[in-house]
Specification:
- This protein has 2 helices and 16 strands.
- The strands form 4 sheets. Strands 9-12-13-10-11 form a 5-stranded mixed beta sheet. It has a 4-stranded mixed beta sheet with strand order 4-1-7-8, with no helix packed on it.
């Protein structure tokens, strides 16, 4: 019994030493706060907020001045503010965070008594994209504005580097078979492992329900396990602190597309008509939201 308790205690203590892991589908903002001498500033207060999405995270830097916030929803309008009682405050507004993206800030805070010629009270900062692998992103704005045949949002994965077409819906491939790809939707694997020839569940989601996605052709981080080929990491849309919605219709037919030189005058594209609506908003401001999307 003592050996069992000792083993469990060691396992719990070992877990305390682990860093926070990035949830597949979400974004992360991390960084380090320095003084002008190059030393990390501990116990600095870091506030990461997004008023439109109802997000607010408050955390403190560790002994080396490092901070990290994971599980952040993709979107625009993020704000990072760093304060310490002995140093000048630092603030960065209008930050865009995409699906699965990791932003790293290297922040230098001048002492509170030092003069600031610009009068802004801001220290220096360096923003880095800390996401590893051969990666491409598609934002919500691109999904709304780029043309999509039959509104198949997964076709946009072809815009990512090192991605090749592989028979219809099974798009991402990097020197691998389509059965080796991974399709994540809000961190959940949707690939059909028993029938790899069928399109994954993520591809059946309407484009109006996707907030953005990340295409990893090679070198996916450890949290994206289970794939020897490419990885599509998509995030669904959610509500916000303001109501938003849309009613739309899409028409595609062969008369709107030119014929191929090898088609012998025959239309290669079938007619497609799609309609739908979406609505999202707050049920309880900053705490509870809803979003609905129907397409036919």
């Amino acid at each position: 019994m003592r050996r069992y308790i000792y083993t469990c205690t060691c396992a719990l203590l070992s877990a305390l030493a682990l860093h926070a892991q990035l949830v597949p589908g979400s974004g992360a903002i991390s960084g380090r706060v320095w003084d002008t001498g190059g030393e990390g500033i501990p116990d600095s207060t870091v506030v990461i907020s997004n008023e439109a999405l109802g997000v607010k995270r408050e955390l403190s830097t560790n002994i080396d001045g490092v901070f990290e916030a994971t599980g952040l929803a993709p979107g625009t309008g993020y704000q990072v503010r760093v304060t310490h009682k002995k140093f000048q405050a630092w603030e960065k507004r209008e930050i865009e965070l995409q699906a699965g993206q990791r932003l790293n800030f290297q922040i230098t805070l001048p002492a509170e008594a030092s003069s600031d010629p610009s009068g802004s009270g801001q220290g220096e900062s360096l923003v880095e994209n800390a996401t590893s692998g051969v990666v491409g992103w598609a934002s919500e704005r691109q999904l709304e504005q780029l043309p999509l045949w039959e509104r198949r949002w997964m076709d946009l994965t072809l815009l990512a580097p090192a991605v090749t077409d592989n028979r219809g819906y099974q798009v991402p491939a990097y020197r691998a078979e389509r059965a080796l790809n991974s399709y994540l939707l809000d961190g959940i694997e949707t690939a059909n492992l028993y029938r790899p020839s069928e399109k994954p569940g993520a591809a059946r989601i309407p484009a109006g329900s996707v907030a953005g996605f990340q295409t990893i052709a090679s070198g996916a981080p450890a949290e994206f396990g289970g794939a020897l080929g490419g990885t599509v990491n998509a995030v669904t849309r959610g509500g916000a602190n303001s109501f938003h919605g849309a009613i739309y219709g899409a028409l595609s037919n062969h008369s709107l597309a030119s014929s191929s030189r090898y088609s012998l005058g025959n239309p290669l594209f079938r007619n497609s008509r799609q309609s739908g609506w979406s609505l999202g908003g707050p049920l309880q401001r900053d705490n509870l939201f809803f979003f609905a999307n129907l397409e036919w």
